[in-house]
Amino acid sequence: MYHIAICDDEIEFVSELEDLLKRYSGETGIELMIAEYRNGQELIENYDTTTDLIFLDIQMNKMDGLTAAGKIRELDEEVSIIFLTSLKQYALEGYQYQAVNYIIKPMKYIRLKTEMNSWIERHRHKNPYIVVQNDRGSFKVAVSKLHYVETYKRNLLLHTDDGDVICYKNMKEMEKELSLYGFFRCHVGFLVNLSFVKNVEKLDVELTSGETVYVSKPKRKKFMEVLAGYWGKML
Q1: 221: pLDDT confidence band, cut at 50, 70 and 90?
Q2: What pTM value is reported for the model?
Q3: Fewest beta carbons less than 10 Å away: which of 26, 42, 51, 156?
Q4: Which of 60, 142, 138, 53 is nearest to 98 (CA)?
Q5: Rounded CA gap, 10 and 13, in Å?
């Protein structure tokens, strides 16, 4: 599922764009969760860091799209932005905020479909991330920054480049979610990112981050086979 935000003060246009996105979702089978905001200030004050793509109007009252984009980049470096405008010259200013593209209003379905197809294809090849939820809210955790996951009380503790993060999922769910990204469950309480493995000595797994996790005796043989295959692909 992709989280899409529409930020525009033209209520009728927002409704039309939402209908086009729902049509796209129905035709492609790609799930979209859509949130609406009436101006840049509302978007910033209620910003959801799990957002994947923002359709952002440039000309709005209270806070225009370019100002909002600057503030968004302070909150989220990864989210994609597509600017909406009636005047082409304004759109060109948006590229300083790493905009994916701009769309001139009014919008036709064929243009939206082309833009969404292109964005999704690029998005799939970007650094993947998972969404983590805890009592502080929802957060994106880049897979490339996730060293390992361990069971912690009744939850999970994710060890990342940016520190530890509590996650309200169980290990089975996390193992399934990370299985495509080079993670291996080497122990009932540990799920390790193979790209961080530096050395294995007996049942100790040393990571490049300086941390140590453990591999259980029953899983050691399979773990070494998978690790050897992973290292072989890196050569």
Answers
A1: very high
A2: 0.63
A3: 26
A4: 53
A5: 5
Q: Of how many residues is the chain composed? A: 235
Range of the domain at 195: 141-234
Interatomic CA distance for residues 142 and 67, integer angstroms: 26
Q: State the pLDDT confidence band at 97, using cuts at 50, 70 and 90.
A: low
Q: Which long-range contacts (CB under 8 A, 24 or more apart) does 215-224 make?
A: 215/186, 215/187, 215/190, 216/186, 216/187, 216/188, 219/185, 219/186, 219/187, 220/186, 223/184, 223/186, 224/200
- Report whether 192 contacts 184 (CB < 8 A): yes
* Count of the separate structural domains present in the chain: 2
Please check whether residue 176 lies inside any domain of the structure: yes
Residue from 231, 199, 235 nearest 215 by CA? 199
Which residue, 183, 162, 159, 161, is CA-closest to 173?
A: 183
Distance, CA of 18 to CA of 156 (rounded, Å): 36
CB < 8 Å & 24+ apart, contacts of 129-133: 129/78, 130/174, 130/177, 130/178, 131/50, 132/158, 132/165, 132/166, 132/167, 132/169, 133/167, 133/168, 133/169
Do 103 and 207 sit in the same domain of this protein?
no
Q: What is the DSSP letter of 154?
A: T
Beta bridge partners of 4: 34, 53
Burial letters for 127-143: b for 16+ Cβ neighbours within 10 Å, e otherwise?
eebbbbeeeeeebebeb
CATH of the domain at 119: 3.40.50.2300
